[in-house]
Amino acid sequence: MAKLLALTIIVIAIASAVPVVMHTWVAPADVSTHGRLIDEQMSETMIEAGVSFLAAQIILAIFIWKFSSLRSDGKMRTFPGGAKGLVIAAIVLVGAEVLALGVFGVKAWATVYFTPPSADAIPVQCQAGQFAFYFRYPGPDGKFGPLHPEMINEANQNLFGLDPEHDPDSRDDIVTAEMAIPVNKEIHLLMHAKDVSHSFYVPALRIHQDFVPGLDLSLHFTATKIGKYEIVCSQLCGLGHYSMRAYLNVMSREDFDDWLKKQAALQ
Amino acid sequence: MDATSAAHAAQHHAPPTSFIRKHVFSLDHKVIGKQYYALALVAVLIGMALSWLMRIHLGWTDVAIPGLQVLSPNGAPGGKITPEYYLSLMTMHATLMVFFVLTTAPFAAFGNYFLPIQVGAEDMPFPHFNMMSFWTIFVGFCVLISAFFVGDGPPLSGWTAYAPLSAIGKAGGPGQGTGQVLWATAICIFCISQLLGALNFISTVLDMRTKGMTLARLPVTVWAWFITSCMGLTAFAVLMPATILLILDHVAGTSFFVASGLVINDQLIPHSGGSTLLWQHLFWFFGHPEVYIAIVPGMGIVTHVLVTNMRRPMLSMKAILYSFWAIAFLSYMVYGHHMFVSGMNPISSLAFSFPTLLITIPSTILVLIWIGSLYGSKLRINSASLFALGFISMFVSGGVSGFFLAQPSIDIMLHATYFVVGHFHMVMGVAAMFGIFSGTYFWFPKMTGRMMNETLGKVHFWLTFVGTYCIFMPFHYLGWAANVRRYASFTDDYIKPLIPLHQFITIAALFTGAAQLIFIYNLIYSRFKGAPAPDNPWEGTSLEWSMSSPPPWNNFGGKDPVVYHDPYQYGVKSSTGTDYVMQNSPEKIAAGED
Fold it and tell me: Using the beta-carbon criterion (under 8 Å), do A105 and B409 form an inter-chain contact?
């Protein structure tokens, strides 16, 4: 029975590692400038965690195999070095691992959160509400008009609560249901929650940030590949949570300018 | 009379005479322990059934489940689960499992039964509080279950109940009105029960130890329950007022968790000035210690079971106990890792990340001491020790995924994905369940006076061990592929190709769940028809094995036992030729075999 358990643990450990090594199920390929740092951090962690996982499971299995009560050699023996060696090993090895992951991980995090957006980044506002994302571009004046939540009226397509009659900055604002951006150009995303918490998760962009009702946040990123990517909500927001998504359309600069003009004409 | 003697005098209560005092409103810690166990059993069966429904829906979204429309005409018209009902099933599954199973069984059930016995006490110092603690949790359980039957549906905002969704009432959609208030009320009541229980546990360990039972001689399980009580006392003391504030946001028009200017259906929500993140801070200040409240008693049980079956002491019990304390201490400094992308200050994320990574050190020490202690031992293989070994394997598997989630930069990819679901199910769900199973097979003879069927126990282990890996390891793969959790179905282009993996998990979950019926059968059959249990079937050394199986109502027959030794005197030569000496045996211990 002990040997069967030992074998089972080894088979499970190796079988668990196979899809990881074979890259059977992977996230959408990275299309951002900062994503490489996150992917590298993930790979390093995968190696360190993977080695720890396999080593612990296999040693556990070997000891179960060798030291069940049925073994012929009846003498009790103590692990060489005793507890002291193991405790020191845990502190030194895991401590070093923790320090390495912690320190190197800061770089990827800092790239996303500790650097300000460049002055010429394109501002786009995203409003999340049950169960759709809407986007707003500031128009030729480069300024967003203020929001008036009490004026939100979906039937009249006033999705953001704009008051162009009294707010000149709102008059040229462009509101869309799809997010389009030019490739290789930094985007400054301004995040606003209309009702409850939501999240802006674009796996291909390595971007993930909650919308916090009452607290407008911002993010910045640059997409490096033309294509259509999914923006999904990852923060439970109600019955339609699973279906809350929008598309991020990364275009050439020319196509983006055309698209923006067409959207402006539709307002 | 010193303080300890006074406490001992206060614990004596007369033998129960009426049926009600014996079996219903009992003051006996052993009966209360069994009541907690029975409640956890009912909760786990309901929770498991809910997970089956969820898994079937995720594997085959359009399938109609026969009979479900009778249970919930609105939630499953024609037997097909609606998206909102899926979220309700998920919310109730998680709430039942986390609170009423993982917190209740290893801590309240086994702790109530064995902690007073293992310290040599006749009962806990406050038996009436103890009785109240069970009946309070029972009321909490009934309130939670009643949420299934309210008009606007059971709550659906998850066991984390993030505000403002959980705080704005019916405007937030189905389940956010009465159902959500009942959820918060149930959790509030649960907290009261836990606080009463924690006070009793702490007092028992500090004041009720028998003569010779110094702190250094406490069995590891007692330390685990004591440390868990300390965590519970502080964690539930934060969650309870948080749930009260949440209830007030619903019923009293307050705005603790709801900010100004929120709009639903073109209507401004009549709240202003609250904070969305306040709920998250309060919840996770409780929520992360809660993970350890669920797992530390399991660690204690597994250590206790292993040491008995290895027939030797652990390499270092001190290292294990210091690791428990380190984990408990760090558990308050890591909670922010649940909130890396919540909108919290990104510098805080780094501040929470380092202690989270650090907590892997005491966890690793535990694993290395367990595995290192196996070296050169004579491990007896039985159902209890198999589940204890399975616990180590699961704890390792669930633990290493913590490396990923501890890092904010990686959390950008993995937050709110199935990777998180896989991580916590393995480390606090399955591992803790293995601790409960191990404890059950180990202590059942003492609790009932009958042995459990070992063959059925081993079949149960094999099916559960392989089955749980088949369920929860693929969750990690889904997470790496960015599959978002808490989705009622998968309609996103990049997630659709993952549906076959979900179907595999569903099949594994159905089989593994069905295997638990073997355990239930074994439990019920053995309770009435099992072979009579000797007083010390596993040749254990702690005080529970010094009394009859089952123990008399007053544990030690009205006398205070005297303790002479550390708890785990194995691998020694006793005067009767055995390889162990019990804690209450006055004989001197000769040198061990090695």
Answer: yes
